[in-house]
Amino acid sequence: MNLANRITLARIFLVPIIMFFLLVNLKFPQIKIDEFSITYNQIFAALIFIIAAWTDGLDGYIARKRKLVTNLGKLLDPLADKLLVSAVLVSLVEMDKVGAWIVIVIISREFAVTGLRQIALLEGHVIAASKWGKWKTAAQITAIIALLINNFPFAFINLRFDLFASWIAAIITLYSGFDYFIKNKHVINFNE
């Protein structure tokens, strides 16, 4: 269990903590500025989510820099990412902050690409992360943060950045999924 894998595991363990702050009413007071309001729960959840999302880049950097890339890390890292994003998005649906259809699109794409990667692995191929996969991750994290913090600071100028970011995340997520399947269609044997 090297440092990179420990960081990845820490990201997994942060998921229930984020969900706790999002879904359990701790009766903390709200912060209100004119029409804008946010709970301390949301602030704590957003800060922990930002730290968890940051560790995604950190564990990969450490693994490559120190030559600590392991099969366990290759398995845990994408799993940790999917758990983090999926859990927070489902929580945001429960909080009525994002449409369920957007979350279904995002989670479905994650399952589909994971399945493709598993098939490729069984065929002896490794599907590396594409630039669209990285854009997808950045778009999802941006949208989630905007939703977690109630569209701050854009709420003050009546700009629905959170909604816009959610749509962009869904579109890039769909496109990146199609991109993976088109570029890796050779690993799928439809005759079996």
UniProtKB/TrEMBL annotation:
InterPro entries registered for this protein in UniProt:
CDP-alcohol_PTase-I, CDP-OH_P_trans, CDP-OH_PTrfase_TM_dom, CDP_ALCOHOL_P_TRANSF_CS, Phosphatidylglycerol_P_synth
Instruction: Name the membrane topology term.
Output: Multi-pass membrane protein
Please give the Gene Ontology molecular function terms for this protein: CDP-diacylglycerol-glycerol-3-phosphate 3-phosphatidyltransferase activity
Q: Does the keyword Lipid metabolism apply?
A: yes
Query: Which EC class is the enzyme in?
Result: transferase
Known EC number(s)? Answer: 2.7.8.5
Alphabetical keyword list: Lipid biosynthesis, Lipid metabolism, Membrane, Phospholipid biosynthesis, Phospholipid metabolism, Transferase, Transmembrane, Transmembrane helix
Instruction: Report the subcellular localization.
Output: Membrane
Instruction: Please give the coiled-coil regions recorded for this protein.
Output: none
Name the domain of life: Bacteria
TM ranges:
12-31, 43-63, 137-157, 163-182
> What's the catalysed reaction?
a CDP-1,2-diacyl-sn-glycerol + sn-glycerol 3-phosphate = a 1,2-diacyl-sn-glycero-3-phospho-(1'-sn-glycero-3'-phosphate) + CMP + H(+)
> Which pathway does it serve?
Lipid metabolism; Phospholipid metabolism; phosphatidylglycerol biosynthesis; phosphatidylglycerol from CDP-diacylglycerol: step 1/2
Write out the similarity annotation: Belongs to the CDP-alcohol phosphatidyltransferase class-I family.
Q: Which NCBIfam families match?
A: pgsA (TIGR00560)
* Protein role: This protein catalyzes the committed step to the synthesis of the acidic phospholipids.
Q: What is this protein called?
A: CDP-diacylglycerol--glycerol-3-phosphate 3-phosphatidyltransferase
Q: What is the scientific name of the source organism?
A: Paenibacillus agricola
List the taxonomic lineage.
Bacteria, Bacillati, Bacillota, Bacilli, Bacillales
